[in-house]
Amino acid sequence: MKNTITTLSLFCFAMLISCCKDDSTPNGNKPQTHSYMEATINGEPWKACRRIGAIGEENLTATYYQNDGYLQLNGVDWCKNFTEDVTTELFFEATSLVYDTGIYNLSLFNRALFSNISESSDKCNYTSVDTANGWLYIKEINTEKKYMSGEFEFTGYCEANDSTIHITNGKFNRISY
């Protein structure tokens, strides 16, 4: 009798687990997924983050004025990245009327910037060039809860040392605005 009850209990438990609802959204994100921005920069992973104890330093910000079509998106890595004390930033500014989701080419009016913002000698701003060699894909704008998600990719050029940087696999998720 004890084996029957154990077997029956295991069967009921297995049925209960198999009937659980999948709580994924259509884009694969879980509803409570946290905010982040990440990319691959010249083959190395990059992610916006904040050092523990860095009070008042925001690592992810966005400004979006839907009626004006204006968007700014910013992610900062205050943590150890390419060298021990380098602080880097990814910045996007779209002024060509971003009213809704979609793919926006990076050019003169929609620009991207990867910058070393720490006090090191290798301070260089890598900006997207006017040849539309990159894009910003606004995948989701939630105007009710005030957040956005998307993807990006671009090649940045630094005039100061005549070099380029390749930013691929860029993603940002649930950035509040």
Notes on the structure:
- With 177 residues, this protein is mainly beta.
- The chain is 10% helix and 46% strand.
- The protein is built from 1 helix and 11 strands; from the N terminus they run H-E-E-E-E-E-E-E-E-E-E-E.
- A hairpin with a 4-residue loop joins strand 10 (147-158) and strand 11 (163-176).
- The protein is globular.
Describe this protein with a few key phrases.
177 residues; mainly beta; eleven-stranded antiparallel β-sheet; 10% helix
Topology:
Blueprint lengths: L1 H17 L17 E6 L2 E4 L12 E6 L4 E8 L10 E7 L7 E5 L3 E7 L8 E4 L5 E9 L4 E12 L4 E14 L1
Antiparallel strand pairs: 1-2, 1-11, 3-4, 4-5, 5-7, 6-9, 7-8, 8-10, 9-10, 10-11
Q: What's the helix-strand series?
A: HEEEEEEEEEEE
Radius of gyration: 22 Å
Shape: globular
What is the tally of beta strands? 11
Summarize the biggest pleated sheet.
11 strands, antiparallel
Q: Mean pLDDT score, rounded?
A: 74
* Helical stretch tally: 1
Q: Helix fraction?
A: under 10%
Q: Termini distance? A: 61 Å
Q: What is shown here, in short?
A:
The protein has 177 residues and is mostly beta strands. It is globular and about 45 Å long.
